[in-house]
Structure formats: structure tokens, C-alpha cells
Amino acid sequence: MPKINRYVDISTVDREAKKDYIDRHSPFLTCAATAKAGQKFPVTVRVGKEYTHPDDNDHYIKSVALYNRETLLAEAGFVAGALGGQGQKGQAEVTFQIVPTGKKLELTAIAYCTKHGLWECDPVEVTVEE
Amino acid sequence: MPKINRYVDISTVDREAKKDYIDRHSPFLTCAATAKAGQKFPVTVRVGKEYTHPDDNDHYIKSVALYNRETLLAEAGFVAGALGGQGQKGQAEVTFQIVPTGKKLELTAIAYCTKHGLWECDPVEVTVEE
Amino acid sequence: MPKINRYVDISTVDREAKKDYIDRHSPFLTCAATAKAGQKFPVTVRVGKEYTHPDDNDHYIKSVALYNRETLLAEAGFVAGALGGQGQKGQAEVTFQIVPTGKKLELTAIAYCTKHGLWECDPVEVTVEE
Amino acid sequence: MPKINRYVDISTVDREAKKDYIDRHSPFLTCAATAKAGQKFPVTVRVGKEYTHPDDNDHYIKSVALYNRETLLAEAGFVAGALGGQGQKGQAEVTFQIVPTGKKLELTAIAYCTKHGLWECDPVEVTVEE
Known about the structure:
By secondary structure, chain A is mainly beta. Chain A is built from 1 helix and 12 strands. Chain A has one domain: Immunoglobulin-like (Sandwich). In chain A, the strands form 3 sheets. In chain A, strands 1, 3, 6, 7, 10, 11 and 12 form a 7-stranded mixed β-sheet that branches. The mean pLDDT of chain A is about 95. Chains in contact: A-B, A-C, A-D, B-C, B-D, C-D.
């Protein structure tokens, strides 16, 4: 409350409109499976994988936040127009460089759409090596 | 994932430490039960009601976000030190002035603690009158 | 670069359109002249004093930030629609509760309009008493 | 007011401590000189080029904002600890993917250090081709 929508594997979804709806709102994490402790580790968050989202003034992806379990690591804010503007579609995308510590990261991301609210992805485990 | 902690009525909680833990992390909404459409309507979000939270550099309330159902209305960011600083305690607090439309608001807030993650409050209904 | 627009006393400005333009974009600080160290001290930031700003999807006040000299104390983010929405006008407004330390605050605020960029106000001095 | 510190070419600066101070606080933009209209265009903002900044709880790079002239394109928020944590040093870095329109971008970035305030870089021109 607000509801947080959770990604569902769209290959299990029948209706094309629903596949599109889920995919274009979900944040996807791209990073290596293993990181070196104390070294820069790039993590990309992209909203939409196979589909694109409108970049309209009244309907756009406003932000993404990257968490390691319960802890915020970084966040990005976007504005309508930065993906081509009114009538265009795109995928909000940002790459953070974090420097991991500890033995393991459990990364998740939350995206916010100005019309369809909060969306989170499945967690991604990263092993941190000395 | 990240877990979002939900407020629990602390009068139902036995242990004093747990009452304190829950209360000092939970956002509380204060506003009138009825708003006038098209007129300024103050909504206060305060983190902690009967207890206070540290304002330490490694442990403070970093942000609150105010939602009407799934829609973000406003957000505030705080910094360590603005509530007295290292060794002090306080309640992060902000008052937004929103101008409601529609017939009803269903307000909630989410707070973020840099050590204990996301916390949300119970929704508060506001009737919007013409 | 980006240019930061600075408030100009509009009583010194001739053209009505320019008075309106300057006033509706400028953040105004309201707070007491004296604060008690270690006690809550409300500071209101309102964008526009005598004039109001559009709340359109492509043109709204997106944020305000409150500084004590060079140090950020708090910030607020607003969304189009929270002041009545498309075709309406209003004044973005937020009240922060800060707990001052030291002997003096020198407060300023910066507001951001999605069409007309960054605007700052004149600094306001607050004496902090033990 | 707050002062915005402007990057100075450190090869013109004598004192090593001052070179370090200026460089580690300044945002640096990396991107191609030419973009294709309507296509993704990566822009990296890194704070510090030859020097690194502390990642301490009371002293870290909190945010960067990317502007096209007066218009905010994207912003990123960082937390203490995400660059290795207390006692470590690093360079806050983020890569945004924007989709340019128009004929030219004039990019700048502003970074915020929790101890040393706002810092901006020299503008970078990007030609946008059809």
C-alpha cells in the first residue's frame, strides 16, 4: 500500500498486452555473477527488456532505486523528454559503479512509473571475492 | 525484496525495545479527514510518534515519500545532522501542501532508514468535497 | 551553467509579466528570526509569493532544496498534478522541521522549474540561541 | 548562495593539496562528441578524474545531476558505503542513457559533497545528427 508490482516471467503470460505491460514497467539488472571486493563493479538497471515504455509528460519512468537486500545503494531520477519525448518510447537505463564489500550482494531494483506505480525485479545474487 | 516493514500497533507489542524499534521507524500521517477540492491541504509525515530515531551519520532517516494509492504525490530527503547530529535523536518531519482532486485520497507514506530499510504506514482515507 | 536565476525584488521591476515570471519561480523562506539550539525549528519553502505557477505535466515545480550556507539540510520533490493538475496553478510548498546547532543559520533555497530551470532566494539569517 | 564551485584546470594549480581538492570534487563528463537523434547516447558522470574522494559516513559524494543547459536530464543519488565505506576512497560514477533531440546538447553536471557543497564542470557540447 502502495502496491509494489513484482516481475512475472512473461513467457508464462498469454496475452500480448499483458506481456508488454509487465515487461515495459519492470526493472532488469545486468551485472556479472562475481565481483572483486574493493573494486568497481558496474550494475545496469534498465526498465523494460523486450518492450519499451512511453516517454510522455504524463506517463514516464521517473526513477529507479538499487538495493542490496534492505539497503539502498544508489538511485537515479529521470525526466519526461530524456528518452525522446512526447510520443516516443524507450527504456530508462542507468549504470551504477559500486564497490562491493562483504561476501555476497543480493541486488534488487525498484522502478516507478508515473501512471502505474512501483515495480520490482527478482533479486540477483553476486558473489564477492577477495 | 527489499522487505517493506509495515507498522504494527505498538499497544499490541510486549517488549519495550520492539515498541521503540517499530515506532521510531514508522511514518505517521497527520491530516484532516476531509479536504476541499482545489484548495491547499496540509499533510504532515513524521517518522516516530512516541519514540525518536538517531540522527547519526551512519544511521538516520533518509527520506519519506507520500503516496495516494499507487501514485507518488511528494517526497522529502533528509540528511544526517539536520536533527541535531551525532548522538542526538529526533523525528524526521515534513509537511506537504497538496491540492486534492477527485473524491477521495488514500494516503500512505514510506520512510527509509539507512540501517533498517523501508517502513510504511497504514493508509489514511481523506474525503475530498467540492 | 546551468544558470541559476536569482530573485530580484519585484517592486523594482516594471513589466507585470516579468514580475509574475520572477515571483512565481522564486522560492521564499518563512521562518522565525531566532531558533533554540536542539529544538525543532520549522522552515517553510514556498515557490511563488504573490503569483502562482502552472501545475502542467510539461511545466511544473519539480523540487526545492534547503541549504545552510553550502550544506544541504533537506529537499523536497513534487510531481505534476499534486497542485490541482493540468490547467491549474498553485504554489509548491513544504515545511521542514530542522533542529539547529551552532550559533547561526544562513538559509537559502533553490527551486527547479521543468521549463525555466533553477531559481534561488536571498539568504535568510537565523540566530540560534542556547 | 550556496556557492557553486567551478572546476579549474588543475594543471594551472600549484599546490598538490589544492589540485587534489578541486579534482576529487569535480564532476567530469565522458561522452562522444556527436550523437544520433532518437538513439541512445551514453553519458558518464564521474566525480574525480585523477584523485579520489572519501566514502566516509560524514563525508561522501551524495549526488550528481546532469543538465542540458538549464534543463535537468537525469540525476543520481549515492550513499556512504557504496564505494567501499569508512576509510576508503573512490570516485562516484554513473552512466545515463539519454535519447537526444534537437541539434545540439550543452551538457553540464553538478555534484554535491556532504562537506564541501556543490561543484560544477565546464559545459560539453554534443552535436546531434539526424
